[in-house]
């Protein structure tokens, strides 16, 4: 674990990887230059563009002292050791039930498609075994000797950790329970991102069919610390994630034993972020109390599987409330709703598009990334 400690050092702020646009290489570089750890989000990113992002980030950080940034990979279901074999087997009863649940969900979305003037993908392209360029991304990480690589959406085989360790990478895993943390260390994780239920975006529950835990971040952090031990061979850097929006929040998790806070929502309005104009407007309205906010001014967020087939937290809108029957079927549901999300974004329809954000969204601020890092640093 000493390699992990020397790489991440004493940086208190990690910019959470946010797939789908917000995590640009410009944001990753700016956070790192400001003394944090920037991240690139590899999920749903073609490998050639990801390699370009890594090169651009490295170029922007040339000459920067302690220039640490990471790349986060989605673990596809066929590579996720937390999914039982019978659920992964083509043609199994579990797979047939899954396909039928996706078919029913697609039927329930036809009215949305007509309203937005789009066609929904047919069953023939909804592949539960889609790999998101997994092998190519692992090969790119090896060839490029990426210094820091983390996994979310599941737990790869120990052999994957062995491969990337041999290439010199420090490896992290996002966990949502003490049991997941122990298994991640058993497979070879060097860093654990402890994700509480307050976090925005997708929950990294390793078994995608499991119900996400509700243990608050501070309690979860204590449970993970107790499970993995401290001052022992299993001692490991812990990054705490979920609802952290200011220096007091960062200081709180550091005092509780985390080595850093991983913040995502706090960076959504950064000048360097690739957050869509529609989501920026929704977040600005939330911060001003004029939209997606409770009467007390706090952000109105909720968990949903409606957009992707995996549980995720976002600003609570009509689509989430009306489509509560989405099955646990990523990436099929994500592919299915893609045209709907694109059309809703183009139409400026914030009630129909995913607006991922954590419970602290009302405290989001528009500023350069360096200023946000300073605001977060105790």
Describe the structure.
With 378 residues, the chain is of the alpha/beta class. It contains 15 helices and eleven strands. Helix 2 runs parallel beside helix 3 (47-60) and helix 9 (178-187) crosses helix 10. The two termini are 25 Å apart.
Lateral strand order in the biggest sheet: 1-9-8-6-5-4-3-2
Strand content: 5-15%
- By DSSP, the count of extended strands is 11
Secondary-structure-based class equals: alpha/beta
Key features of this structure:
378 residues, alpha/beta, 2 domains, eight-stranded parallel β-sheet, three-stranded antiparallel β-sheet, 15 helices
Q: Care to give the gist of this entry?
A:
Helix content is 39%, strand content 12%.
Topology:
Elements: H1 2-8, E1 13-15, H2 25-33, E2 38-41, H3 47-60, E3 69-74, H4 85-88, H5 93-108, H6 110-116, H7 134-144, E4 148-152, H8 158-166, E5 170-175, H9 178-187, E6 191-195, E7 201-202, H10 217-228, E8 238-241, H11 247-255, E9 260-263, H12 277-288, E10 301-304, E11 312-315, H13 318-322, H14 332-347, H15 369-376
Parallel strand pairs: 1-9, 2-3, 3-4, 4-5, 5-6, 6-8, 8-9
Antiparallel strand pairs: 7-11, 10-11
Helix pairs in contact: 2-3, 9-10
């Amino acid at each position: 674990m000493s390699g992990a400690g020397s790489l991440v050092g004493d940086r208190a702020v990690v910019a959470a990887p946010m797939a789908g646009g917000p995590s640009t290489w410009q944001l990753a570089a700016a956070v790192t230059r400001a003394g944090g750890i920037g991240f690139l989000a590899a999920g749903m990113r073609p490998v050639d563009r990801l390699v370009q992002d890594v090169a651009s980030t490295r170029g922007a950080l040339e000459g920067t002292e302690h220039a640490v940034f990471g790349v986060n990979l989605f673990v596809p279901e066929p590579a996720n050791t937390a999914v039982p074999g019978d659920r992964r087997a083509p043609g199994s009863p579990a797979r047939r039930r899954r396909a039928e649940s996706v078919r029913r969900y697609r039927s329930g979305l036809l009215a949305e498609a007509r309203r937005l003037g789009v066609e929904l993908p047919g069953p023939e392209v909804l592949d539960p075994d889609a790999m998101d360029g997994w092998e190519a991304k692992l090969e790119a990480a090896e060839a490029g000797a990426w210094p820091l690589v983390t996994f979310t959406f599941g737990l790869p085989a120990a052999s994957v950790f062995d491969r990337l360790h041999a290439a010199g990478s420090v490896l992290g895993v996002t966990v949502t329970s003490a049991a997941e943390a122990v298994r991640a260390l058993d497979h070879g994780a060097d860093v654990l991102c402890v994700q509480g239920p307050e976090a925005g975006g997708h929950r990294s529950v390793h078994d995608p069919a499991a119900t996400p835990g509700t243990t608050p971040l501070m309690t979860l952090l204590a449970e993970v610390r107790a499970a993995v031990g401290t001052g022992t061979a299993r001692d490991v850097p812990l990054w705490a994630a979920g609802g952290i929006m200011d220096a007091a929040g960062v200081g709180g998790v550091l005092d509780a034993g985390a080595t850093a806070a991983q913040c995502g929502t706090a960076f959504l309005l950064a000048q360097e972020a690739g957050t869509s104009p529609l989501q920026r407007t929704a977040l600005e309205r939330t911060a001003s109390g004029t939209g997606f906010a409770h009467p007390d001014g706090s952000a109105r967020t909720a968990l949903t599987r409606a957009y992707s087939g995996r549980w995720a937290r976002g600003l609570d809108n009509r689509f989430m409330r009306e489509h509560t029957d989405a099955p646990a079927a990523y990436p099929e549901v994500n592919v299915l709703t893609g045209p709907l999300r694109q059309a809703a974004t183009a139409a400026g329809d914030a009630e129909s598009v995913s607006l991922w954000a954590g419970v602290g969204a009302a405290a989001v601020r528009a500023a350069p990334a360096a200023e946000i890092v300073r605001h977060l640093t105790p």
